[in-house]
Each structure stands twice: as C-alpha cells, then as structure tokens.
C-alpha cells in the first residue's frame, strides 16, 4: 500500500504532466516548427502558403482534438520573416482571436499522422476544418512534415496523450503503432 506522501507525490506529478496540445506543448511546437523544414517549405520561396487564405505574411493555425471537446484549442501564429520564411512566432492556447486555419483530428488520428499523412488521410481532418481546401490539398506534403514534427515532439517530451472524452484504448493503440523510423525519414 502506498504511503500518503508517496500517493500525494504521484498525484502532483500526474497533475503536472505535459499533455498533447496543451499550452506548454504548443509553445514547444512553435520552436520545433522553426527547427524543422517547415519555414522554407511553406514560406514565400516554398509553396507560398504563408501568403494564402487572404492573409498575406501571417497565418494562425488553430488545432484541437475532436474526441476531447472540453480540451482548449491550441494555436500557432506563423509569420513571414525578412527572408520570406514562414516562422512560428507564438504557440499556446488559442485565445479566441481570428484564424485562417482550423483542424481537429481525433487523438488517435494525430498519433497516426505522426508517421505519414497524405491525401487519403484528409477526411480525418475535414470534420471541423476551416481554410481553403485547394491550398490545403496543394500543401499536403508540407503538412506531412508538420504532423511528423508534432508527433515526434510528443514522443520526445513523453506527453500524456489522454484526455477527457477520448477512448484511452484507441489512443494507446494508435500511439503504440507509430513508426518513429518512418517519422525520422519524413523529417530528413
């Protein structure tokens, strides 16, 4: 039987565990975006995504988990720098401000997209999707990298993928199936 002190320490540690798409994770995701190929892929010298959706040089991406309705939405703010690269300038909980993009795959889909995302996966993000479909379709390859960056960061930080409303068994199976070698190939 656990002592009261041990039980209290376990509860405290559990309560502080970083969760997938929480504020701390999304802040770290902003830096991971900048450390990846994303700034060049979707910048002005890449696909030009940074100037799409009627918002020249600035994009706000709102992300959520459809199976975790009570979970706060996360947001990344991406801006063109002087070289035209699409750099992340802020990541955290979405404060309700205007955005150009929104998608809410389920938590198992987020895990599944870690090691590959393509046109056949598009239906997984279409429920609740906001943004120009044509632009999204033209940037599938770039966003395969984005999903790989996001998933790899989750594994690197040992985040808690569970959430209220999510099916823990489905989430665990999806997370266990991620092929991190394939993820590494996407990122290099």
CATH class: Alpha Beta
CATH topology name, in short, is: Nonspecific Lipid-transfer Protein, Chain A
Give the terminus-to-terminus CA distance: 48 Å
Note the overall shape: globular
User: How is the largest sheet built, in terms of strand order?
Assistant: 3-2-1-4
- Rg, please? 17 Å
The description of the largest β-sheet is: 4 strands, mixed
When the domains are counted, the total is 1
Q: What's the overall average pLDDT, rounded?
A: 89
CATH superfamily: SCP2 sterol-binding domain
User: What portion of residues belong to β-strands?
Assistant: 5-15%
What is the number of helical segments per DSSP (H or I, 4+ residues)?
Answer: 9
- Structural class category: alpha+beta
Runs in which pLDDT lies below 50 for 5 or more consecutive residues are: 1-14
Order of helices and strands: HHHEEEEHHHHHH
CATH architecture: 2-Layer Sandwich
The count of DSSP E runs of length 2 or more, i.e. the number of strands, is 4
What share of the residues lie within helices? Answer: 40-55%
């Amino acid at each position: 039987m656990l002592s009261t002190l041990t039980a209290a320490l376990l509860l405290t540690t559990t309560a502080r565990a970083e969760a997938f798409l929480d504020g701390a994770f999304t802040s770290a995701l902003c830096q991971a975006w900048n450390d990846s190929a994303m700034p060049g892929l979707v910048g002005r010298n890449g696909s030009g995504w940074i100037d799409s959706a009627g918002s020249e040089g600035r994009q706000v991406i709102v992300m959520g988990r459809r199976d975790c309705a009570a979970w706060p939405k996360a947001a990344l703010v991406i801006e063109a720098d002087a070289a035209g690269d699409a750099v992340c300038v802020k990541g955290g909980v979405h404060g309700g401000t205007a955005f150009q993009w929104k998608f809410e795959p389920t938590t198992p889909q987020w895990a599944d997209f870690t090691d590959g995302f393509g046109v056949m996966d598009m239906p997984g993000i279409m429920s609740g999707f906001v943004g120009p479909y044509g632009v999204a379709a033209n940037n599938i390859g770039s966003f395969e990298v984005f999903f790989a960056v996001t998933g790899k960061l989750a594994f690197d930080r040992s985040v808690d993928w569970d959430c209220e409303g999510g099916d823990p068994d489905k989430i665990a199976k999806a997370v266990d199936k991620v092929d991190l070698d394939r993820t590494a190939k996407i990122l290099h």
